[in-house]
Amino acid sequence: MSLSAQSFGYVAELVRRESAVELAGKEYLVASRLAPLARAAGLEGAHAVDRYVNLVRGRREDARRVVEAMVVTETSWFRDGAPFRALPRELVPALGLRRRPLQVWSAGCSTGQEPYSVAMTLLDAGINDFDVLATDVSARVLARAAAGRYDDLEVSRGLPDSALGRFLTRRGDAWHVRPAVRGRVTLRRHNLLEPGPPAHGRFDVVFLRNVLMYFDLRTRGAVLERVRSVLAPDGFLVLGTTETPLGIDPAWVRVKIPGTSIYRLLGGPA
Ligand SMILES: C[S@@+](CC[C@H](N)C(=O)[O-])C[C@H]1O[C@@H](n2cnc3c(N)ncnc32)[C@H](O)[C@@H]1O
């Protein structure tokens, strides 16, 4: 399986333009992720991926498929634990009760484990007045999130038995998120390169985890600036544990909660 520099350059530029995801140095990843698409298009042989790239050039629907094949959609339930413990214990109390419903945005939600974990966390804490908006650039992962259907391997990744029993039901060979949780999450296609999605007011908590890490520094700055414009002045930004806005966008101050990477806007409440 080979990939010419020209094909790689085309795919890297397409994916950068459509999702901001950086592929520099990842020729092998591009070749291996596009190989199944080439096969599905009936192309075989050593140059199948190159021929596939030539085939999809300029074809909008196929280009979207290429972008979707290249984004990393790795996720799990209650990923990293600490942010989900902090949400009802520290973030919601700090926001106070005056502004309800609580508005949460899970940006880059992948197959839904993150926004459903948020909904389960809030319901478990007795907080019923909330909306979760979950967005992703990939229609493929959003369709999976909308189905709310997970296999045994997927539920084994982070979902405690207690939550499994209460919030999902077994049908056939899969687990289904119950309507009480599914109905609390609104799913929308949204590209973080575009202005933030509308909310009823601004978002109180934005989960933007394990997404910025795939962007170059300039794009991270631009995305953080957009998040600022839709975050309430006293709202919280929850990043992946290895991610930080520091050194990229000076507008943020860290909220010191162990095991988390949570920020508030400078000039907002301490
Ligand atoms: C690694 S997953 C993280 C999922 C979840 N936030 C978590 O931490 O488990 C990254 C997600 O970001 C999405 N993504 C990548 N580029 C994006 C963009 N420009 N706009 C919106 N979502 C994007 C991908 O499709 C993918 O589902």
TrEMBL record:
The UniProt record lists the keyword Nucleotide-binding: no
Keyword Metal-binding among record annotations: no
Domain named CheR-type methyltransferase: residues: 1-268
Pfam families: CheR
Annotated signal peptide: none
Record-level GO BP terms: methylation
Example of a GO MF term: S-adenosylmethionine-dependent methyltransferase activity
Alphabetized UniProt keyword annotations: Methyltransferase, S-adenosyl-L-methionine, Transferase
Alphabetical list of CDD domains matching this protein: AdoMet_MTases
Descriptive protein name: Protein-glutamate O-methyltransferase CheR
